[in-house]
Amino acid sequence: MFALERTLTADIIPASRTETTLVTVVDQDEVVRLGVVAALRAAEGFTASAALAQADEVIVGRGLILLGARAMSAHEARPAVRSLTAGGATVILHSADERPVPLRSAIAEGASGVALRRDGIAGLLSTMRAVLAGRLAYSSQHAERLCTERDLAARLSARESDVLACLSDGLTHRQAARRLGIDEETVKTHLKSVRAKYMSLGRAVTNVGTLMREARTDGWLV
């Protein structure tokens, strides 16, 4: 695994003229997958070694992997990032999902960079080159902000997230308590804590509905 340090990929790092990096492209969207492969063929220093629809099709080993995430689905990439990096691969999340929580989760699981689809091929290639140079990379200032700015998203505990997930599933406070093995008052305490965290960020939360809305905006809920 490459040693990492933070960088913005606005500082383009030229690819070597003598070395070619083999890249595995993983994306459920065939149009995106084939488009990235075509861009790699045209770019200096990169060759697509495989184009796959699912992460579990990857033969784990050392190499550079572009892992795609569709809108509202970056949370699904977390176990794939964990598995691939554990096997020695270097992973860049190529994401249409721009919610802070799942992007940060991918970095926490070992992703070496985040390239937003909105930043185009240039942003993707510059992120790849920065990662290969040993840096933790983002495709733009916007991408870096989503992944790093402290006050952009509420920081919830695992149990607070669990409580929200139960309510998102349509459970009452009592049913959520039963599912989680806690008492109903504890559920209410967690909700009060979540509300306080959002209020501290200046985000108006007046009822459970607005609380769930803000949690979805951040990516705590699908």
From TrEMBL:
Domain (HTH luxR-type): residue spans on this chain: 149-219
PROSITE patterns recorded: HTH_LUXR_2
Keyword Manganese: no
Stored CDD domains: LuxR_C_like
Entry protein name: DNA-binding response regulator
PANTHER family: HTH-TYPE TRANSCRIPTIONAL REGULATOR YHJB-RELATED
One term of GO molecular function: DNA binding
Organism field: Nocardioides baekrokdamisoli
Record keyword Translocase present: no
Domain of life: Bacteria
Lineage: Bacteria, Bacillati, Actinomycetota, Actinomycetes, Propionibacteriales
GO BP terms, alphabetized: regulation of DNA-templated transcription
Pfam families hit by this protein: GerE (PF00196)
Gene3D superfamilies registered for this protein in UniProt: 3.40.50.2300
Keywords: DNA-binding
InterPro entries reported in the protein's UniProt record: CheY-like_superfamily, EvgA-like, Sig_transdc_resp-reg_C-effctor, Tscrpt_reg_LuxR_C
